[in-house]
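User: I'm writing a tutorial on reading structure tokens. Could you give me a worked example: one chain, its sequence, then its tokens, then a sentence or two explaining what the tokens reveal?
Assistant: Sure. Here is the example chain.
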Amino acid sequence: MATETGDWNWLDELEAYRREHKPKSKRTVTCTAHCSKCRTCFHSLAAYDAHRVGKFSEPLDSEDGRRCVHPLDLLNAEGEMRLVALTEKGRCSMYPSNVREPVTIWTMAGYEKFAESFGSSSDE
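And here are its predicted structure tokens:
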């Protein structure tokens, strides 16, 4: 989406995505992996791995070096999203001294239908 100045803004894109993909879960979902570089939370290691691209053998500051890609920018060959938001009201408590909530927790596309199975039993 372009802003009034014509620049693309990923926050506008995220808000549009959130309106279209309302989470159905009423349980508190906690992340099982998160990226210390971009602070994005994930439901699975596969989702975390999907958002990291590049070669380990290249310097981090090179174009081919390992880096984060925002989940909304990860598309498969058909142009469909590879990651989807499992919930936008998740809880990151991987480090008890740094609990964050609400957070968006991303998962691999197709897994969001199992949202009711994940997380703790505390209702919102």
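What the tokens reveal: The longest strand covers residues 83-92. The beta strands are 33-34, 41-42, 52-53, 67-68, 83-92, 100-108.
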